[in-house]
Write a structure and sequence with these properties.
The complex is a heterodimer of chains A (234) and B (637).
Chain A lengths: L2 E10 L2 E11 L4 E5 L6 H8 L5 E8 L2 E2 L5 H6 L2 E4 L11 H8 L12 H7 L1 H4 L11 H13 L5 E5 L7 H17 L2 E6 L2 H7 L2 E6 L2 E7 H5 L2 H7 L3
Parallel strand pairs in A: 3-8, 3-9, 6-7, 7-8
Antiparallel strand pairs in A: 1-2, 1-4, 4-5, 9-10
Helix pairs in contact in A: 3-6
Chain B lengths: L8 H32 L6 H18 L2 H31 L4 H23 L15 E4 L2 E4 H23 L1 H11 L1 H5 L5 H21 L11 H16 L4 H21 L5 H14 L19 E2 L7 H15 L1 H4 L2 H26 L8 H18 L3 H7 L1 H15 L4 H21 L1 H4 L5 E2 L5 H4 L1 H23 L2 H11 L1 H6 L4 H27 L1 E2 L6 H14 L6 H19 L3 H15 L3 H16 L11 E2 L3
Antiparallel strand pairs in B: 1-2, 3-6, 4-5
Helix pairs in contact in B: 1-5, 1-6, 1-8, 1-9, 1-10, 2-3, 2-4, 2-8, 2-9, 3-8, 4-27, 5-6, 9-10, 9-18, 10-11, 14-21, 14-24, 14-25, 14-26, 15-16, 15-17, 15-18, 15-24, 17-24, 21-24, 22-24, 25-26, 25-28
C-alpha cells in the first residue's frame, strides 16, 4: 500500500473532530474522500500532513510510520498536500510560488519541471511573472497544484480541487488530474461533487461527522444509492 | 528680539547630510527588526541590545587589530560574532516561545535586554568608550566653508548599498523567496517541505547581523556606552511604525525621515526636538495606521493554546477573605517598624500601578509597554501643584493624577488606532517621549535633578499614617476596577478584547471603548504616581522610565494576565522580591532579566493562573467530568 491510515483521531481543543478514521491508497491509485461540508475531509488531510497538533493513530506512508513526524519531513518524504483554501503566496509571482515548492528529484516518483507544469497548465505559462494575488480563482487552484507537484511527490492529497470553479476550468482540472495519474502519482482527492469524483477516481470512501461510513469502488458506490443519498448532497 | 543673520545655506546642506549619515545605522537596525518580524512575528526588543553588543565587540576588536584591514575586518567580524550569539538566542530561547502570545515574546526579549545591559557593564565597564576613527575616512570634506566628516559621506553611500543588497537577497535568491513566502503564510511553507526551524534561525541571524553591523559602524562617530540600546530601540520602533513593520523600503525611507527630523528639529526646538518626530508619527498613524509602506494586517489570530477561564465575581466567602487580608494588612503599623511601613506603602502604591495596567491588559487586551508614563505624569502633576502652586496635599492628590489622565487621553487616542505589537511599540515610544521631555526641559521639570521637597502634610507624614493612606487608596482602586470588570462596560471591553470585529458587528464602538479603558487605566496609574511622589518626597524622570514600565508588565504577568486578581498578587510578590533583591546584589538587571525570561518560558500563566489551574485540577478529579465550562477552552484558530 502507498498510504495506510489507521485509527486516526483528531481534536481541536476540547472538540473531538475525527473518530478512528481508516483508509488505504494503493500504488498509482486515485481515491476519493467524499463527504458534505464539515464532515472532516480537510481535517483528515491536515492531520495526515501534521498540521493538526492534537492527533493520534497510525499513518504509514511507503512503509514508514510518519504519524509523529513534523510537517516538513512528511512532505519531503514525498507526500504532497494541496490545501482547500488554495493559500498561494499572493505577493510572490507564479514562478516564485513554484520555487517555494521545489524539492529534489525522487527515484520512486515522477519528476516535474516548471516547463512540464506550464505544459500541463497552459494558463500559468502566460502569467509567469504575475503576482499570485492578481490571478483568478481557477488560475490560483492550478498554481496550488503545480506548486505541490514541484516537490515531486509520489502521492498527493488534493483538497476539494473543483470547489468554486467554472465548469470549463473543472474540465481542465479533470484532465490535469488524469495526467498526474498517468505519470504515476497516487492521489487522494476530497470532494463534495460526486460527478467530478466519478470522472477521476478508482475507489471512494465516504466520511460523515468524522467517521468513515463507506469504502469501495465507484461501481460499488453506484450500486448503493441509499448510502449515496444519505451521506452526500447531490 | 533682534534678528540675527541666519546661518549660510551650506550649513543646512551639511545638516541634511549629517541626518543622512545617521539614517544609515538606523536603517540597518530597523530593517533587521522588520525582517525578523516579517517571518517570525516576533518584535525583537533585544534588537537594541544586539546593536549595542555589536558596537562593544567592534570596539574591542578594532583596539586589537591594527591597520585598514584590521579595522574593517573587525567591523564585519563583530557583526558575524553577534549574529552567532543571535543564533544561539534563537535556538535556546525563541524556539520555545514562537507559539506563545506575542506579548510574551516581546517581554522575553525585553528580559534579554536587561540582562545584556548588566553584562556589558560587567565585561566592558561602566565608562564611555571612544573608538578608533575609520582608516581612510579620518578627515573632513570642505563644503563652502562647512566641514563634513568623510566618514559621514561613507555612511551616506552605505545605506542605499545595503538596501540594494537586501533587495537582491530577497528578490533573487531561493532563500529570499522562501522568506517572503513565510512572511505571508509560514504553515503553508512548511506544508511544501521547508524546514521552518532553520528558516527562522537564518532570518534571525540576518536580522541580528544587520543590527550588530549598525552598532559596529557607529564607533567612529559616537562613544560606546551601556545605554545605547534603549536609545536606538525607541528610534527604531518609531521608524518601523512610520515605515511599516515588515517593509525594508519603508525602513529606509522612515530612517531617513526620522534622522532628518532629528537633525533639523535640533535647530527648531533645541530642547525638545523629539516632539517633531512624534508629530510626524502621529500624522502618519492617523492617515495610514499600518505605516507608509506597510500593509494592513489581518486581525491577529488568537493563539491556539491560549486558555481563558470564564471570569466570575468573588463569592461571599472570597469577599470575606479579601476583607480579612485587608484588615490584617492594616494592622501592620501595630508591630512593624518605619522601614517596613515605607516598604509597605511602596508595595501598596505598586498594587495601584499594577492593577491599572492589568485592567488595560487583561480586560482590554491592550498591552502597554510604556505605562510608567502615566504613573510618572501623576507624580509630576503633584509636584507641579505642590511646589509651584503651593496647593494643599489633598487637592494635589486629587488633581495631580489629572496630568496622567490628560497624557493618557492624548496618547491613548493614537495608540488605540493600533493593536497588538504596534500598540506596544507605540506606547513605549510615547513613554520615551514623555521621559525625554522631563529629562530635557530643565527649566520646568528640573531635568535629571528632578523636583525635590514634595513632602506630605502633617496628617499623613508619619509612616503609619501614610501607609494607611496608601493602603486605603489601593483597596479603593482595586475594588473600583473590579466592579468595572463586571459592569456592562467591562463586558463590552472584554468583547472587544476577544474579537474586535464581532464587537463592532453588534454595535460596540471598539475604538472609543478602548480609548476609555486607556484613560481609566492611565488615570489610575496617575493616582499611584501621585502617592509615590509624596512617599519619596521627590520626582525624577526615572518615574516615567522604561524600567518602571517593565516593572508594571512583569507584575501583571507574574500575577497572571488571564486572571482577575493577577495584578494585586503580582505586585505584592514582585515588589517585595525586587526590594529584597536590590539590597542583595549589584546585578539586579541581570537577575531581573533572567527572572522575566524564566516566567515567560516556565510559568506563562503567572502565580494566580497556576493556582487556579491547580484548584481546578483538584476539582475536576473529584467528580469526573464535572463541568465542561470549568475546563480551559482552547480557541481552534
Amino acid at each position: 500500500m502507498k498510504l495506510t491510515v489507521e485509527g486516526l483521531n483528531s481534536h481541536y481543543g476540547p472538540a473531538h473532530i475525527l473518530f478512528d478514521i481508516g483508509f488505504e491508497v494503493g500504488e498509482g491509485e486515485v481515491v476519493a474522500l467524499l463527504g458534505r461540508n464539515g464532515a472532516g475531509k480537510s481535517t483528515t488531510f491536515r492531520s495526515i500532513v501534521g498540521l493538526v497538533a492534537q492527533r493520534s493513530g497510525r499513518i504509514v506512508f511507503e512503509g514508514k510510520d510518519v504519524s509523529v513526524r513534523p510537517t516538513h519531513e512528511i512532505v519531503r518524504g514525498g507526500l504532497g498536500y494541496v490545501p482547500e483554501e488554495r493559500r498561494i503566496f499572493t505577493d510572490l509571482t507564479v514562478e516564485e510560488n513554484l520555487e517555494v515548492g521545489r524539492q529534489p528529484k525522487r527515484l520512486n516518483a515522477p519528476s516535474w519541471t516548471r516547463e512540464k507544469l506550464f505544459a500541463l497548465f497552459p494558463n500559468l505559462a502566460e502569467m509567469r511573472n504575475r503576482p499570485g494575488g492578481r490571478m483568478s480563482g481557477g488560475e490560483q487552484q492550478m498554481l496550488t497544484i503545480a506548486r505541490t507537484l514541484m516537490g515531486n511527490p509520489s502521492l498527493v492529497l488534493l483538497d476539494e480541487p473543483s470547489e468554486g470553479l467554472s465548469p470549463k476550468i473543472v474540465e481542465q482540472m479533470v484532465d490535469a488530474i488524469l495526467t498526474m495519474k498517468k505519470e504515476g502519482v497516487s492521489i487522494v482527492v476530497s470532494e463534495q461533487n460526486l460527478h467530478f469524483a466519478r470522472l477521476i477516481s478508482d475507489r471512494a470512501y465516504i466520511i460523515e461527522r468524522g467517521r468513515i461510513c463507506f469504502g469501495g469502488t465507484m461501481a460499488e458506490l453506484d450500486a448503493r444509492p441509499d448510502i449515496r443519498d444519505a451521506h452526500l448532497s447531490l | 528680539m533682534q534678528l540675527q543673520p541666519g546661518p549660510p545655506m551650506a550649513f543646512y546642506v551639511v545638516q541634511f547630510l549629517t541626518g543622512l549619515a545617521s539614517a544609515a545605522s538606523l536603517f540597518l537596525v530597523a530593517s533587521g527588526l522588520s525582517i525578523i518580524f516579517g517571518v517570525t512575528r516576533i518584535v525583537n526588543f533585544a534588537h537594541g541590545a544586539f546593536y549595542m553588543i555589536g558596537a562593544y565587540v567592534a570596539f574591542t576588536l578594532t583596539e586589537r587589530l591594527s591597520g585598514t584591514f584590521g579595522f574593517w575586518g573587525s567591523i564585519v567580524a563583530a557583526a558575524f560574532a553577534v549574529a552567532l550569539i543571535g543564533v544561539i538566542v534563537e535556538m535556546v530561547l525563541l524556539r520555545r516561545i514562537y507559539h506563545a502570545p506575542e506579548l510574551f515574546q516581546l517581554l522575553a526579549t525585553f528580559g534579554l535586554t536587561l540582562m545584556v545591559e548588566d553584562l556589558v557593564v560587567l565585561i566592558w565597564g561602566p565608562d564611555d568608550l571612544v573608538g578608533r576613527r575609520a582608516p581612510g575616512f579620518k578627515g573632513a570634506v570642505d563644503f563652502f566653508g562647512q566641514n563634513i566628516p568623510s566618514y559621514d559621506l561613507f555612511l551616506i553611500v552605505l545605506g542605499p548599498v545595503v538596501l540594494g543588497i537586501l533587495w537582491l537577497l530577497f528578490q533573487r535568491t531561493r532563500w529570499g523567496v522562501l522568506v517572503r513566502a513565510a512572511t505571508q503564510d509560514r504553515d503553508m511553507v512548511a506544508a511544501l517541505g521547508v524546514n521552518q526551524k532553520w528558516l527562522f534561525t537564518s532570518v534571525f541571524a540576518v536580522g541580528v547581523f544587520l543590527a550588530a553591523l549598525g552598532g559596529a559602524l557607529q564607533i567612529p562617530r559616537d562613544a560606546v556606552h551601556h545605554a545605547m540600546d534603549l536609545r536606538i530601540i525607541v528610534e527604531v520602533f518609531v521608524v518601523v511604525v512610520i515605515g511599516g513593520l515588515g517593509s525594508i523600503i519603508g525602513a529606509f525611507v522612515a530612517a531617513v525621515l526620522v534622522s532628518e527630523l532629528n537633525a533639523f528639529g535640533i535647530l527648531i526646538f533645541p530642547k525638545i526636538s523629539i516632539i517633531l518626530v512624534f508629530l510626524v508619527m502621529a500624522v502618519v498613524l492617523i492617515v495610514r495606521p499600518w505605516g507608509l509602506f506597510g500593509r494592513p494586517e489581518a486581525p491577529a489570530r488568537k493563539t491556539p493554546g491560549l486558555t481563558v477561564n470564564p471570569w466570575r465575581p468573588l463569592t461571599s466567602n472570597e469577599r470575606l477573605a479579601a476583607l480579612a487580608a485587608l484588615v490584617i494588612a492594616a494592622t501592620l503599623p501595630l508591630f512593624a517598624g518605619n522601614y517596613a511601613l515605607t516598604v509597605g506603602s511602596e508595595i501598596a502604591i505598586f498594587v495601584i500601578f499594577a492593577v491599572s495596567l492589568h485592567f488595560l491588559m487583561a480586560v482590554g487586551g491592550l498591552a502597554s509597554f510604556g505605562h510608567a508614563a502615566y504613573f510618572g505624569l501623576g507624580a509630576y502633576g503633584v509636584a507641579f501643584l505642590a511646589k509651584m502652586a503651593g496647593l494643599p496635599m489633598i487637592v494635589c492628590l486629587l488633581l495631580g493624577p489629572l496630568l496622567g489622565c490628560m497624557g493618557a487621553a492624548v496618547f491613548g487616542f493614537f495608540a488605540v488606532q493600533l493593536s497588538g505589537v504596534y500598540f506596544a511599540m507605540l506606547t513605549l515610544a510615547f513613554a520615551q517621549i514623555v521621559w525625554s521631555i522631563a529629562f530635557q526641559w530643565v527649566s520646568v521639570t528640573g531635568g535629571d535633578n528632578g523636583i525635590l521637597g514634595v513632602w506630605p502634610e502633617k496628617w499623613a507624614a508619619s509612616p503609619s499614617h501614610f501607609y494607611w493612606l496608601a493602603l486605603g487608596v489601593a483597596a479603593l482602586v482595586t475594588v473600583a476596577l473590579r466592579v468595572a470588570v463586571f459592569s456592562p462596560f467591562g463586558y463590552g471591553l472584554r468583547a472587544t478584547r476577544d474579537s474586535a470585529l464581532r464587537s463592532e458587528a453588534i454595535g460596540v464602538n471598539v475604538k472609543r471603548m478602548q480609548w476609555t479603558a486607556f484613560v481609566i487605566s492611565g488615570t489610575t496609574a496617575g493616582i499611584g504616581g501621585a502617592l509615590f511622589a509624596y512617599l519619596k518626597g521627590s520626582v525624577f524622570p526615572d518615574n516615567l522610565g522604561i524600567s518602571l514600565s517593565v516593572d508594571a508588565l512583569v507584575m501583571v504577568l507574574l500575577g497572571g494576565v488571564e486572571t482577575v486578581s493577577g495584578g494585586v498578587i503580582g505586585a505584592i510578590v514582585y515588589k517585595a522580591l525586587n526590594i529584597w533583591l536590590v539590597s542583595q546584589t549589584d546585578l539586579s538587571k541581570l537577575v531581573l532579566g533572567g527572572f522575566i525570561v524564566l516566567i515567560v518560558v516556565v510559568f506563562p500563566k503567572g502565580i494566580v493562573g497556576m493556582l487556579e489551574m491547580l484548584a481546578q485540577r483538584r476539582k475536576s478529579t473529584s467528580p469526573p467530568g464535572a463541568s465542561l465550562l470549568a475546563k480551559p477552552i482552547e480557541s481552534a484558530e
